[in-house]
Amino acid sequence: MEKLLGEFSFGLFIWQTLIVVALLLLLRKFAWKPILNTINDREEGIRSAMEAAAQARQEMQNLQTDNERILKEARGERESLLKEARELRQKMIDEAKEEAKAQGEQLISQAKEAIESEKQIAITSLKNEVADLSLQIAEQLTKETLSSDKKQTELVQKLLKEVDFKA
Amino acid sequence: MKRTLLVLFTLSLASNAFASSTSKEGEKKGSLKDEIKAYVQHHLKDSHDFYLGSYKEAGKKHYVGYIGLPVILWDNGLHYFSSAKFKHGKAVVQKGSNYYKLYHGKIYITDADGSIVYDADHHPTNEKPLDLSMTKSVITMLLTALFMFFLFRSLARSYGTNGNIAKGIGRFFEPIIIYIRDDIAIPNIGEKHHGRYMSFLLTVFFFIWFLNLLGLTPLGINVTGNIAVTFGLALITFLLTNLTANKNYWAHIFWMPGVPVLMKIALIPIELLGVVIKPFSLLIRLYANMQAGHIVLMSLIGLMFIFNNWLGSSLSFALAFSISIIELLVALLQAYIFTMLSALYFGFAVEEHHDEAH
After folding, report:
1. Number of structural domains in chain A
2. Which end of chain B has less neighbouring CB within 10 Å, N or C?
């Protein structure tokens, strides 16, 4: 320890401290600050560039998925439109068929009714005609034999009713 | 290794001179050992002058590449002159009414004849003036500081001219700066406060590293192995730690949270001691490591001449060579450790949150 203290040179210590402090201050101003600032700026630049690149990549990906989605949607829409159209067509056809059928049936039933009523009318008139005819014939036949017209007609009518024309 | 060659040159001349008288074999070995010991001792110390090497010829010592350095003394007034005037301690320098003599690397006030008075342990008892000389270490530090200034200034400038990308030698140093920030400063001090200490950490790291490396050059200037230098560096760490410390740091010293009151009182002197011991360990660690490295290296080089045969000398050379390579690593390692521990102490000083488990 004594040897260490004996070796200690006060002058050297003073010079050393002066030199280091001066060097420290000079380097801080002229070297370390600009160097560290540049390094920091550069790192900041690299970091922000990387972030921007990542963001751009993300955006592009988003865009791509968007595009895909839009495309898919469009395809889906077309699909559904086509389906709708097909359904509509089918429906229209079905409806038309239905209507035609209904109308046809109605016409047929109307026709049937008309025929029936025509038939009834025809039968009635025929019946009357036959009755008249029969009367005339009977009149002709029995003009002289039959005294009471009225009794005869009733008889004939009764007889005619018994006759079934349908048979 | 120029230094090695010069040492080799010096010592081979010395041994040649001895070899002329074979009857003094034992004495030769002894004096060679003493000479190497003196040489190593001299090398470890700071010096008032600078020379590349020395040799003895016809009993006279010659110096190669000698440069006198400025001597600055404060002794009832400022005195300055070139250290060449001491003539390696042989001459007495007169300034005004005072006489100065260089003796074993230190300047003493003497009489006109330059007589040195010794005490019982053979230590000079002469008075010493306040020595503010620009010694070998001071000059080396100044040159290192200048070198560092221009080196990192050029790095800072190259960013401007090269689109924020380092150019030239800065490409080598920039990753080291980033390493110090990311792996020394931020983990120890924290993201928030590290900026304040970056200048000191960077300066101290490169300063110690470059000086350590300079110590390994053939010039072999042992600056960081000097206690005054490491003391100065550790003192700055100490001051920075305690002057920038927050409330939490002082609370941990004077009123440790989470322990009983008696413990709190018992911990005060221990914690206060710790405040001083931390930077003290810094200064001793750096000093001792560099000093030891130089002693080992120089001794191994000296061993080559003591063996003075092909087997022993080549083995010592191989050892000295491998130790040199290890010392290269130690030069970096010690700079790293000093910076790392400084950062750790700064971290203690600015730590905010503290868990009770500690």
Report:
1. 1
2. C
